[in-house]
Amino acid sequence: MNHSSSMKEAQVSIPELFRCPITLDLLTDPVTLCTGQTYERSSIQKWLSDGNLTCPVTMQKLHDPSIVPNHTLHRLIDRWLQAGHCYDIGPHVAELKHTLESNHYTFKQKLQAIKQVRLLSMELPNTKENSIQSGFFELLLKPLFGEEREFSQQLLEFIEQALCIATELMPLSELGCLDFVIKEDNKFTSFILLLKEGTPMIKLSLCELVKTMAVSSPSMEEAKEISIIRGLINLLDHEQDVDVSGAGVRAISALCLTQSMVENLVKEGAVDSLVAYILRTQAAEKNWLGEATTALELILGADGGKESLMGNSNGIRALVKMVFRVSDHEGSESAVLGLMRLCCESKEAREEAISVGVLTQLLLLLQSQCSGTCKTKARMLLKLLTSM
């Protein structure tokens, strides 16, 4: 056996007893739970701090969440290292990939593998790149969108974990592989169903995928565009979780970069949903308010956009609300631009904007610390309204 092959063998021969069940890496600070299972201290502390009250391996509830240093195992590992052994995390990533690909593993084992991949990617900086090289991004996504029409709790948990790690890997991946979600009808149907019936975390992740698809796959069948739009509008109209509805707003804003999407947003009633969202949303969600206003202003440039907003009894009021806010000016410029679009052509729009207090809002904005560009546009709108 030559030197390189013996090194390779040493790198993959970490005894199971010496590996953390979460990261599959060599234990450096082993601690033991009340269930008798031993983990790397930082890994299990992360697991517990995330609100998990179970043992990751046995899934037993922890009657005592304390952790106890495993000095005996620590000494054994030190002796093993002193004997000259070396190791690498690459094989462990490959093992996890094999678990997810193989039909010989149970659903529970695959779920555990997903959790290990996620924790591993958070704790080891190089693992995300290794995961991409191993094809993890596409591997995680493809099984999620199948022919299921009913989702068990276990399946939803699996999808949730897989989507979380997939969205974390997304910035490093080749986004062209998202095309399969759009092109394969059964997977697209599952995608839309999960957008409606998934857990809040699943919906958040799917909104991130929509944002990415809007850039990487801007062209799709009109029926599929409309399905996505309806799913996102449903989040704005009916979702109780403010994070999810905010993610829906951001996804709609991303869709506004494509002309056909903007036209379909108008047809499907996105204006009414955005107006309602702006009026009911409190200052605590200000970042999403800004994006909602930006989306609304972009939609006004599409055919039927202005008519749709003018047909909403609260449309002008929503834009005026966003002209000036004490805490910040996110969305102010978009609100001013939107009002300019309307007031240049419509006496009715000018009168209504004045009646709901736009002049006061503009004067406050001009006295604030907003950008020079925003102030210039505010002066233009103020001049328009006072001169006419």
From TrEMBL:
GO biological process: protein ubiquitination
Organism domain of life: Eukaryota
Gene3D superfamilies according to UniProt: Leucine-rich Repeat Variant (1.25.10.10), Zinc/RING finger domain, C3HC4 (zinc finger) (3.30.40.10)
Top-tier EC class: transferase
GO molecular function: ubiquitin protein ligase activity
InterPro entries, per database record: ARM-like, ARM-type_fold, ARM_PUB, PUB22/23/24-like, RING-Ubox_PUB, Ubox_domain, Znf_RING/FYVE/PHD
Pathway: Protein modification; protein ubiquitination
Keywords: Transferase, Ubl conjugation pathway
Name the UniProt record assigns to this protein: U-box domain-containing protein
Annotated source species: Nepenthes gracilis (Slender pitcher plant)
